[in-house]
Write a structure and sequence with these properties.
Elements lengths: L8 E4 L9 E6 L12 H8 L7 E5 H7 L3 E3 L9 H6 L3 E6 L2 E5 L5 E3 L12 E3 L5 H16 L4 E10 L2 E12 L5 E2 L15 E2 L1 H13 L7 E5 L11 H4 L11
Parallel strand pairs: 3-9
Antiparallel strand pairs: 1-2, 2-13, 3-13, 4-8, 5-6, 6-7, 9-10, 11-12
Length: 251
Amino acid sequence: MQCLRPQPLHIPQTPDTTVPIKLEILAVEGLPEVQQDDDIAALIIQQATLLDGDVVVITQKIVSKAEGAIAMVNPDDPLSHQPIVEQNSTRILRRRGDLIISETKHGFVCANAGVDRSNLKPDQAAFLPDNPDHSAKRIRHNIKTQTNLDVGVIISDTFGRPWRRGVTDMAIGSAGIQPILDLRGTSDASGHQLQVTEIAIVDELAAAAELVMGKAENIPVAIIRGVPADWLGTGTIQSDLIRHPAADLFR
């Protein structure tokens, strides 16, 4: 069977002043196995041609590897990572069998506190970076230093969602791009004023990038080209995207 590599994904959009007419999503292939203390920015630059205004989406796993967020586990015990899950949880919400739904210190509510054993050596488990927003900021700075290009950086991870089957990638850290596109006060196509519409553009871009990275293709980085310039800017996941408990109907 012939295995075809993902091709650039073109997403047509309805013409509008707030969204691009076309986005191009490019998988970055050929990255070496990331080791602790590797310069992720340099590895990306060696394998990809970046342009000003690109958004670089990087999976959490290689950021955790580079930052040493790796713990040793018993390769013969599929549950040996659970103590690491509990150490990385500030609150356990639910348990069912070997599944734990918990809240991390970052404010993420997810399965097993983001601790993951996939795409690692059998005796390893990865946990989330200490501060994914700072990680994104550092990678963006290193790209700027080495290329003089201004790009956005998103660090993504896979999340399940309440009441829906399947998983999707979301942003756990970002730099150089607004996490939220606030459309409140603008008008829709029928002239009605939008009252509550805030689009989590970093999550939508992270999910789109995952379509060309896949779960088993060993492609941990993608470039999104064509993002509107006014989406690029300041903001962090921690400050802009995590819902405050006082505004959360489910906590």
